[in-house]
């Protein structure tokens, strides 16, 4: 803007704005719309006059100053009628002046898309907190300050909206929604691939939304309980014994599975034989069998009153029903596919050529297995062992039929629920969930310490 023209506008527009405000103030005061001599209204007039004088003297940005004058006039004539009291009215005016200043600086220094997003965000916040919600002026002011602090960075603005929406539309699960929203945004912003792809990002976003709805019950239970209730629950002897029983039996079951299933997976990976496809299908069978059916089948075969169970009890003094051995038996049955299939996939990723080289260098077949195949497949096998352990620890249906005593953690939860109800059972569920998540997280960290193998077939020179 030319200097002479700007000087002319500075001498013309500010007094016109103030005169218009003063006339409207007098007219509306005469009609009874507002109290013209009220202290707050007089302070608004004085503030508008001071800004007009400053602009006429060449101080400050003309457009910004006129915008503030217009905002003061609009608030003094109309806006304050919407506020419940003078204090809230003054706070709304000051925050709106801050928003006007931030918007002006964004329009002046950043691309137009930032100003467009900032403007749309302002009106959306107004619609949410003023139009749709009752008595939410304080939340509106807080949201506007958050908008002003984050509007210059789209990532920060996304986190701000995630927090705002979580605590407005996701009640009573606001904290759970906020935690997942932040996790979701962190993944989306950090996702990278060699060739940029919107399709891949869209697929990732859809999958994460499904994960959120699947894990929402876990988050609600885990974060909705008082920590003191969790501590009190851990003090119960029944709960401690259930956790110990679960950990011991799941560990024993996983060890037995590893002893037999890892060699089986290696043999399937390296050999061709009749019925191989059928064997792989049979290994997956425990996954599709209902837990209750599995428990009845095991009890029908290994119960003390049954032939095979009586043979074990008579010959070896081993009893399955109502003992920890019965718990392990049920856990082994349901967890077998997880470790077997994971170990099979891991051995399939180990090139057989490496074993051939070891054999030519003097190693026997057993030495090649322990020195080459097993170490390279260790990561996949350990992942399978972790999954098998988790599946064994979480088994309920088969364990309930075969060995309801001593109680494992899932059986204890069931017994609590049937005796005291869902409300009193919630602290126990939260305790078990946190315990399981912590233990599973530690096991996953151990998995990351193991080498990863990607199979690459030998190629010619």
Q: Can I get a quick summary?
A:
The protein has 461 residues and is mainly α. The protein has helices at residues 3-31, 39-56, 62-77, 86-109, 112-132, 137-150, 154-169, 174-190, 198-223, 227-234, 237-270, 276-283, 285-288, 291-302, 307-316, 324-348, 352-360, 365-376, 378-393, 397-402, 409-420, 422-448.
Q: Give helix % range.
A: over 70%
Mean pLDDT: 84
Order of helices and strands: HHHHHHHHHHHHHHHHHHHHHH
Oligomeric category = single chain
Most strands sheet: none
Radius of gyration: 35 Å
Please identify the structural class as seen in this structure. mainly alpha
Contiguous low-pLDDT stretches (5 residues minimum) are 455-461
Quote the distance from N terminus to C terminus. Answer: 73 Å
From the spread of the alpha carbons, the general shape counts as elongated
Count of helical segments? 22
Strand coverage percent? under 5%
- How many beta-strand segments? 0
